User: Fold these one by one.
Assistant:
Number 1:
Amino acid sequence: MTKTTTDREQREAAAAQGEAEGAAERLTTAPAESDGPTGIGVLGWLRWMWRQLTSMRVALILLFLLSLAAIPGSLIPQNGQNQFKVETWKAQHTTVAPIYEKLQLFDVYSSVWFSAIYILLFVSLAGCIVPRTWQFVGVLRAAPPAAPRNLTRMPVYAAWRTDADAEAVNTAAHRLLRGRRFRAHLAGGAVAAEKGYLREVGNLVFHLSLFALLGGFAWASLASGTGGKLLVEGDGYSNTITQLDDFTGTRFYGSDDLDPFYVKLNSFTSKFQNNGSQIGSARQFTAGVEYYEGSDPSKLKQGKIEVNHPLEIGGSKVYLIGHGYAPVIEVRNAAGEVVYSGATPFLPQDGNLTSTGVIKVSDYGEKDGKKTQLGLSGFFLPTSPAAFDPNLGPRSLFPGDADPALVLNAYAGDLGTDSGLPQNIYQLNTKNLTQLQRDGEAAKAKLKPNQVWELPDGYGTVTFKGYKQWASFNVSHRPGNGIALAGGVAAIAGLIGSLFIQRRRIWVRAVALPDGGTLVELAGLGRSESAKIAEELAALAVDLQDDAPALDDEPDEPDALDEPDEGGTTEADEASAPEESAVPADQNSKE
């Protein structure tokens, strides 16, 4: 019996010790071992990422990134705006040009990384706007919040006694508040009123406008197209893919969608400041054109194109983006035949329009019994100096045509134009050419208008007959610009509304007193810091005196429009006040 009891006690003691050890293990801070999954799971991570994406912080970061991403587009020439500048830039920066191409810096606004930023911003705004809109609709459908139990704790408060009936006072207050365009509700012996809902409307309009702005940009990137064309004075072109110098289309806008029209450059006027500290600064660029839409020349119209003042034809706009000079040159071969004659555009290289260019005479003919081609390269100087700097070479002193001159070098041989391979019309490949020599030195000449240069070795003559001006145009079709502009204007209007419209609430309670008479209480609460709520409450108290005149022997009540010393409600006030019926404050909200 004793042994049995002892064994039982030993088993009980061992069990107790095991429970104690288990309890000790449960008190440890080490993570519990489990074969099951840990963490918030895939769904939890997706929910967390969605909340982060739709938060105010991430939206501002994306907006900032979008602004930063647009900077390269304004500093680096873009293919969709000016193909000539892009090619010139690449020729001047041969080292970094391939890197820029891989980074899509010549097509910033259609690049993958730029599109990713504004698509994420688009989704972020959508994730904020939709729930906020439904919440705001719910607020509009609900009655204003009922009056708190203790109105004396409101930031602005007024009270007095009157002999008027309590129900009549409440009815009069309801009428006055409705007359002041408050949303007022009479129930439970008190009037609850609220005003300033346009503040939240402005907030939503601002976000919707950003949504429209991004949508306009997105539509423009999908359904827009741009082309470039250089025209010398007196030349014209039809807006077709074969006559454009370059064209960049999009997914929903190709070469078959080009607007049909014809444009001819009749004249070009350029003026520069010729004195003072800003000498050489541009003052006027005007292209005088004639054009017609469609294919009917009888509908010819006159127009002009200036910087930032494009010509709108159909659904396209023609912008003036550049200008320069085109020397008019006549070349005669050894037999005295005219083998080349016309204006050749030279491309500006600096602010004074020092321009470089080449003339390729493919049909020169034969020289010494074999087929020969002639190449000329050089500079056009609108205002040439008396002598060239030996280090800088030919440079213009002024962008205007005060003293024009043409500096040329001559080459003979094979231009490579018959090979069928494409060539840059502004560059001369001298691989199979030999520079003409005179007295053991490279043959070159500085010509004034109407001067003739006799080429060495009987290759003929080159006559500088004068010059014309050329203009470079960008033909743009962007259907989303109107949407983006409307979104920008609406965003400004919504922002003004959200900043200057004040959301406020007013409660009026008239209660019959046990000793006779009625106690009238007014209280106001502004959703933002503003003195307007006190002014409105004072005006309402004055108007209510007609229906509830104050008695002369006032009891010890708080003074009219008394503002608490601590300037706000206490925790007890918040406990007694009704829940806010406006859109709830949320850390992920864009407000």
Number 2:
Amino acid sequence: MSYLTDKLRAPSREAQGEVTVPGQMFDEIVAANPARRTLLRNSFGLSILSVFGATTLAACGSDGDSAPAPGGGGGGGGGTDPVGPDYSVKFERLADKITEDTVTVPKNYQVQVLYSAGDKCEAGSAGYAGTPQSWPDTETQAGGQHDGMHYYALDGVDPNKGGLLVLNHESTDNATLNLTVEGTKTRLSNVGVSVVEIARGEDGTWSVKANSRYNKRYTGNTVYNVGGPAASAVNGTRKVVGTLNNCASGPTPWGTYLTCEETTDNYLDPTQDEKGYGWVVEIDPYTPTSTAVKRTAMGRFDHENTAYMTDEANRVAFYMGDDGTPGCIYKFIPSKAYDPKNRAANLNLLDEGTLYAARFNDDGTGNWVELTHGKNNLTLNAIDPGNYTQTAPDQPPRPTIVNFASQADVLIDTKVAARVAGATLMDRPEWITVGVDKTVYCTLTNNGSRKRTSAANPRISNSHGHIVRWKERGDSPLATTFEWELLLLAGQDPADGAAANVTGNIKGDEFSSPDGIRVDPQGRLWVQTDSGTGSNITDIFGNNSMYYVDQETGESKRFLVGPKGCEITGIAYTPDLATFFINIQHPNGVWNTKRAGGGDARSATIVVSRKDGKPVGA
């Protein structure tokens, strides 16, 4: 989540107030299980040919990286071709504290800007040329603040040379907009989602295919259908105008795109009921004429992304984080298996199922608490303990009475339901990824106002965040219990002599505020950061960056550093892993300006590759 988004929604959050209660102590879990930090191991060596599966429309598997594998891993199958590419990580790590106003990559790598805020999207778009624009011109071109994204294969097209790139626009790139004309509609047109067909030319340069029938914008002015148990309660017409704060995202096994709304506050257009926002929205990128649907069965909260796990019977679970301060981690299991041979049969699968929230116990075990009306105290006169982690231990909790009269109430007020049911309040759960061995990882970006620690959130005033991971019982997406551990605590090197709450345990290159995270089809873990951009951060860590993290040792290697003021976010790639797509959000220097003299540094999707065509990471 962009810190700019946090500022936009701050007034309504402050009006609600914050309340809190005691949690668990980190030293208790270490004492009980001193070896937990090294229990989980990831695996390498899966065939890259499985990235898009056997068919184009089943283009994604575990975490969207590969088709569901025999054995249920959802991350591909088989071993790496012994004469094939070398996917071992050998790039030359970047230096510390880089603050240049450019994208910095290792030696032998290159960067290309592919798709920037205001660029042409749909056929007939005027495109931004340096003069601020207003609606309706802005409705059909790239939105602002590029965020989560996914790459989809196209039937009949070599996926290493072309496909569909679908990406979120979290907020507005105001410098490109003329807000004096149709200001509300102009802002709303700058958020949402872009679907663009892209292709690699003979010279290796990638570009958006102009006038492709797939190119489409979904904006804050678009009408969306609403499905699931809370549809009528959200709006009796089962329709909502607009999507908002489209932060991260994820694919489904049947080839659709899940864009996640990271706000339950409607601060851009107060005329719309706020119950219409804070949902997962399903988009079919292969069918531009279809209407996107808000899936209420998956709960309403500050969604970050989705990542899924499958099994041999084609049952699937979707993992989600609530980027709240604090927020919970969720899992949604559709009632039925998906059908890999009948795509149409899956298009309403997300309207029925069971939603859970995670409880992280102090002994390294965990369980999924069912969020179903009538269970786990989700009834009339329920007691909400509030955001208890944000008040000092010597301050008594300030619980409130809430009424859950139906499942629709549970889904509309999911954040409250999770607290009532006893889920663990985490330090801003952001991206989640499912590895090829079914280890699940979640970035907890930070929580500078935490006052009470728990085993899974061991630091008060947690300014730099951490990463937690877990294994489901039996590696099953249907499991209701799991085992967890901390992968790492982000922050300063202990040699700096800083306070304990800002000191990390990273081996290698230190960083703050892990956000974007993804395990690629070769089992390699990539982490992106979204820390503050003031000198108090950049003097220690440099600009926001992207890292490779070894899951066994916790060692990190700095792979990419962004320009001034930006967040690094969005991770997608071609199946050969020779091309990575990465998003640069809200740069504020002169990088990627269009206007003469600058002043309009634009968010953008960039292409990163090796000059010799080898896989990224080599």
